[in-house]
Amino acid sequence: MERLLLEILCCPVCRGELELRDAEEAEGEIMSGTLVCLGCGERYPITDGIPNMLPPDQRNGG
Amino acid sequence: MAGDVREQFGQAAAAYATFSYHASGPDLPVIIEAAGLTGAETVLDLGTGAGHTAMACARHAARVVAVDVTPEMLAAAADLAASRRIGNIEFQEADAAHLPFEDGVFDAVTCRVAAHHFADVRRVIDEVRRVLRPGGRFVLADTVAPEDAKADTFLNTIEYLRDPSHVRDYRGSEWLRMLRAAGFEAEMVYRMVLALDGADWAARQRTPPEKVAMIRHLFAEAPPALRAAFELRDAPWGFSQPIAVIRAVRA
After folding, report:
1. Testing the interface with A: which of B42, B90, B103 to mutate, by most A Cβ within 10 A?
2. CATH class name, domain B2-144+166-194+241-250
3. Hey, are the CB atoms on B90 and A2 less than 8 Å from each other?
4. Which residues of chain B have pLDDT under 70?
């Protein structure tokens, strides 16, 4: 995931602003970390460079 | 609802990466043109699956964001993009009915062979409108049900028997009505018929034998009008599906 994407991303639940935490980068790409919503506090994990932006009730087969 | 699709397509990911229609269908260049891509656009591809539409757009756009609810499909798509050295696609897990994007940030949104899985298609259309800039284009390609009510029922019945995550193949007229009601100027720009081998079609979704038997029973009982509408074939068994591309411009 490129940092540029942060400019257009928002929380899928409340559309709040997201803050990137605990980021690990490789060759300019964010490979892992957590996007935290500054509005509702929901957390979205980034794994192997792919952010999981599903609303929490839809994760894990919900 | 997204859970059904994830379960179904997590297992089907490899089969979809190689199916020739998905990888190289004649509707792909139509989609590029209908989306108005010139090389400068930011594009969102919904239900990207194996990523074929996203990769086709990526060659004609500045950047493509490709989303799907199935992580296995996204991983397969990211591998395929990397092997083709396409570097301007961002993959992410996201639900089309709850898009994680600010308003008006995309020049075009594409959605190919995915909309029949959406549990709440009107909500998806509203979300697409929200993330498109004014004048931005939504280009949708999917199997469309015939306008004839019985043929519509037949198609959606066999689709559901084949794949329990199937929701509905809408009629072209339904798409146009829904899109116009949501504030788009919509028109159908392309139609094609895709001839399918029944065994391959079922195998891609790992349809269990008892469901395949039900589908074949419906084929055997189909009256002449339905046999003609879907070009039902017996040996080897198969049928033909109407596919349409619809271009919708955000007012």
Report:
1. B90
2. alpha beta
3. yes
4. 1-2, 11-19
